[in-house]
């Protein structure tokens, strides 16, 4: 295990129960609110997976661990990513928060021993999505947007739910398109989001 992860997990008594261990790890870092958000996302992802014919258990695990890298202080995100061997993008240097989806893959794999690549890929793009996303990736992405964790009211929730009545892809495109139309006001536009928008646009425009 990487030195940074050993330090961040010091004092955590892992039971082998993924929910218990996720909550304890986040709580020891004073992120109980993150743990609660992750449980809500996991439950939502499980329901969406059942509805749209994916694998509910994988969706649930990805939801539980999608923000697990929040244990890494934001000021250390870039250095930690480099320690883990990630190729850090310029946009991620400008906005280190955008690295958390990729860092969560490392924590899920090394700390929680998640080996399933489908789960890890769903965690990896849960914030930005990416082009040619799988069903599971779209489910975790939209579950995270439904279970909003920002202090202001979720401005996308009613639109997402309305589009979900049509299809999962409609809901995903609705959210991605909202960000794209507001791109001039975003601090940074992650290239994966651009790729996702271009890919989805071929279906809806």
Word description of this protein:
The protein has 205 residues and is mainly alpha-helical. It has a single domain (3-150), classed as Hypothetical protein af1432 (Orthogonal Bundle). The chain is 62% helix and 0% strand. It contains twelve helices and no strands. The longest helix is centred in the first third of the chain and has 21 residues, at 32-52. The mean pLDDT is 95.
Q: How many domains in all?
A: 1
N- and C-termini, Cα separation: 46 Å
Shape: globular
What is the CATH-assigned architecture?
Answer: Orthogonal Bundle
Fraction in helix: 55-70%
Instruction: Write out the CATH superfamily name.
Output: Hypothetical protein af1432
Overall mean pLDDT: 95
Low-confidence stretches: none
Radius of gyration: 16 Å
* CATH secondary-structure class: Mainly Alpha
What is the N-to-C order of secondary-structure elements (H for helix, E for strand)? HHHHHHHHHHHH
How many beta-strand elements?
Answer: 0
Q: In CATH terms, what is the fold-level topology?
A: Hypothetical protein af1432
Q: In terms of structural class, how would the helical and strand content be classed?
A: mainly alpha
How many H/I helical runs? Answer: 12
Strand content: under 5%
What characterizes the major β-sheet? none
């Amino acid at each position: 295990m990487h030195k940074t992860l050993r330090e961040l997990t010091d004092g955590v008594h892992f039971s082998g129960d993924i929910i218990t261990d996720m909550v304890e790890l986040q709580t020891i870092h004073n992120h109980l609110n993150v743990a609660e958000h992750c449980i809500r996302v996991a439950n939502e992802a499980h329901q969406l997976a059942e509805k749209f014919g994916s694998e509910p258990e994988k969706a649930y695990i990805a939801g539980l661990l999608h923000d697990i890298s929040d244990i890494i202080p934001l000021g250390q995100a870039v250095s930690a990513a480099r320690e883990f061997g990630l190729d850090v993008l310029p946009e991620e240097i400008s906005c280190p928060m955008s690295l958390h989806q990729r860092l969560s893959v490392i924590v899920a794999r090394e700390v929680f021993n998640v080996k399933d690549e489908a789960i890890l890929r769903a965690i990896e793009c849960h914030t930005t999505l990416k082009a040619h996303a799988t069903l599971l990736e779209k489910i975790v992405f939209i579950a995270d947007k439904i279970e909003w964790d920002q202090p202001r009211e979720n401005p996308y929730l009613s639109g997402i739910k309305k589009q979900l009545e049509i299809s999962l892809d409609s809901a995903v495109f609705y959210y991605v398109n909202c960000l794209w139309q507001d791109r001039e006001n975003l601090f940074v536009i992650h290239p994966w989001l651009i790729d996702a928008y271009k890919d989805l646009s071929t279906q809806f425009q």
